[in-house]
Amino acid sequence: MKTDLLAPDFIERPYWWDLAPPPPAGSPQPLPDTADVVIIGGGIAGLSTAIELGRSGVKALVLDREAIGWGASSRNGGALSGAGSLGRARSDLHTLDARLLKEMVEEAEGSFDEFETFLQREGVQCFFRKTGRFVGAHAPKALDTLKRRAEMLNRTGRDTATILERARVQEEVATDLYHGGLLIERAGSLHPGLYVQGLAKAAAGLGAELRGGVSVTGLEKDGTRHRVRTSLGDVSAAQVMVATNGYTGEATPWHRRRLVPVASYMIATEPLGEERVRRLLPRLRVYGDTKKVLYYFRPSPDFTRILFGGRASFIDADATRAATRLHGFLTGLLPDLAGVRITHGWKGNVAFAFDYLPHVGQQDGVHYALGCNGSGVVTMTHLGRCAARQMLGASNRASAFSRMPFPTMPGYSGRPWFLPLVGASYQIRDRMDGWRSTPAKARQ
Fold first, then answer.
1. What is the pTM of this model?
2. Of 72, 184, 310, 436, which one has the fewest beta carbons inside 10 Å?
3. CA atoms within 13 A on the CB side of 36
4. Nearest partner of 290 among 437, 379, 182, judged by Cα
């Protein structure tokens, strides 16, 4: 491992936690014996649900085995989109029922509009910006896929999605590796650490009880209610919600069998100065690409650093080792950063559904909002509200994301033993497409 790539003060911790660290998990005080609603998972989906319930006078008990907001909700890249990332890992969206697909796209687009209103209503200050999103085509044939996505988005009448040919890529990113790209206007960025703290404050202000450091060990039906077994005793709940996503455990096996937790890794460069960042990312947007082993990146909220993420490993690698690999990816894409060091490296679990689509609904009376698929900030905020409205019986129309099966794979129990094989096949496919991944010196 090349330690000269790491700054002397390098730390294995999310960059976001410098300004907004998760709260202490809390003292092991007894839980209440009963609750109107128990929400398992104290991230974006769970907190959004608690806020919507609280606005209708229902006080939720939110439980998390770590601190509230400790998981992917405060570890992600802070990129926001509506339907721009819908099903991005699959090329067969057109095989879905046409009416259902249309409703999903329109609902996802509408959720982005609702998001800004939601931030204003709840008073959440988190460096929200409407930036637009650029998606680079890693191969010529990938540009054709992006053209189909642009057509899908533009049919809603809400979005402006534009294809940029290869000659215009430098307007967006200072690289010669992409064969064109897709510019999506309905996209943005925020500081995820501040966002999840704002959600927690809003939920608590509406009466939710937030308890970190509490493990849920099982669920049982208890007549018309649910018995939630925890490390601090049992709670009888009228309704239960599962919002654990990439950290879904054995206590909810039905949900666990439908999610594939994948570790995603990120790094933050040392301060570069705004002028240099603007030379590399002229429009200061959020960015991604079409590779199977994709990259995602953006400027920091103060525009002085570049934050870069991707699948540095398909096994559970430590964040320091992954940081050196990501440095190689970053400098392969943006050679101007060859001598820049890394100050932060971290990882978090992303929850993929087998159909690469988000899901909200209920199973045996237990509600859920799951399957962020690598783009969960807006999606899980929206689906959390949908789940709350289901519980309240206040939804005039079920979410499009509740009207399709939540698939699994025969024999799958929630432990993704196949990820190294999938990762290797993805890398091979990217190379076959002609992608130049990392410089030779970064693989040493």
1. 0.94
2. 436
3. 15
4. 182
